[in-house]
Design a protein that fits this description.
The protein is α/β, with parallel strands linked by helices. The protein is built from twelve helices and eleven strands. Helices cover 37% and strands 13% of the residues. α1 runs parallel beside α2 and α3 runs parallel beside α11. The longest helix has 16 residues.
Length: 338
């Protein structure tokens, strides 16, 4: 298995960029990109852009959710529920709603792209692909990581042959990595989960969720993690693709009030408090990522009128500790603080 850096920049799809990943790897961390929200051509392009900037290791993250099941009646109700919101901005909701990107568990094109480009690390979120897909990635020489929110998920990943497990705590920003979003969630915190996995799973454990500085990384390592993965800490870096509204919200009082919501994408995800987090979704939302089709469209309509309150402003509970600085400087700062 490739030796993993102690500081991992989380592969935040839609926020992390090739520029960020390259800067982090060049500074001695592990840079990451998320390709779950793009196609094979997009993945190839992003990987090539990182390679043009860095010879360091790269982590490419894919989404392994169950493909969405269309429910026309539920989707129609969801559209009508938000139609007045679109009308505020002189827009109409998309109809019908689409499954805006394909899960890696069925995407042969993305699998082929990864097998050919051979990133040093491939990581899984929302589950694990088939043994056949795992074998293809292993054949390409990739080290494999998988995200788990509890011991049972970690055991599934270990049995599937991943090399290390990312322990995603309840504090983490962005999409909750639960394999089954309809199942009960024990909402384990990062440090409790790390200790459980260190005891129960014979794999290296990476701590993720609520870690924003060197003290948090050092604490995770003392608890038995081999590395810490930080996402929210990198959102304010100039290399991220976060828009002005997202950055302003992260620097505001909203950072102190993150909330878990299904309303934006159809899956639970931790977001800065905004207009979207005030929507009660629960089981009303269409399947992920069908619901995200509407969420992204509403954000685009509102943003065009100068309202950023419907954005997917993902952030963890450590958001108030955010420090805007270039990604390489942040990695250096984290190292000093450790």
């Amino acid at each position: 298995m490739l030796e993993i850096a102690k500081i991992i920049q989380a592969p935040m799809a839609g926020v992390s960029t090739p520029e960020m990943a390259a800067a982090v790897s060049n500074a001695g961390g592990l840079g990451s990109i998320g390709v779950g929200a793009t196609n094979a051509d997009g993945a190839r392009k992003m990987i090539a852009e990182v390679r043009a900037r860095s010879t360091g290791p790269l982590n490419v993250n894919v989404f392994c959710h169950a493909p969405a099941k269309t429910d026309a009646a539920r989707e129609a109700r969801w559209i009508e529920r938000f139609r007045p919101r679109f009308a505020e901005y002189g827009a109409s909701p998309p109809s019908p709603l689409r499954e805006i990107y394909e899960s890696f568990v069925v995407s042969d094109d993305v699998l082929r792209a990864l097998a050919e480009t051979k990133p040093e690390i491939v990581s899984f979120h929302f589950g694990v692909p088939s043994a056949e897909r795992v074998a293809v990635l292993r054949g390409a020489g990739c080290t494999l990581l998988g995200s788990a929110t509890n011991v049972q998920e970690a055991r599934v990943l270990a049995d599937a042959g991943v090399d290390a497990i990312v322990a995603q705590g309840w504090e983490a920003g962005g999409h909750r990595g639960v394999f089954d979003p309809s199942a009960h969630d024990d909402r384990l915190g990062t440090f409790a989960l790390v200790r459980l996995l260190v005891r129960e799973i014979d794999k290296p454990i990476i701590a993720a969720g609520g870690i924003m500085d060197g003290a948090g990384i050092a604490a995770a390592l003392r608890l038995g993690a081999v590395a810490a993965q930080l996402g929210t800490a990198f959102v304010a870096c100039p290399e991220s693709s976060a828009d002005a509204g997202y950055r302003a919200a992260l620097a505001s009082d909203a950072a102190k009030h993150t909330e878990m919501t299904r309303a934006i994408s159809g899956r639970p995800a931790r977001c800065l408090r905004n207009r979207f987090t005030a929507i009660e979704a629960d089981e009303d939302a269409p399947d992920y990522p069908i619901a995200y089709d509407l969420g992204k469209s509403l954000h685009a309509a509102a943003k065009a009128k100068g309202d950023f309150g419907w954005g997917a402003q993902w952030a963890g509970q450590g958001a108030p500790l955010s420090r805007p600085m270039p990604a390489a400087d942040l990695v250096s700062t984290l190292k000093r603080e450790m």
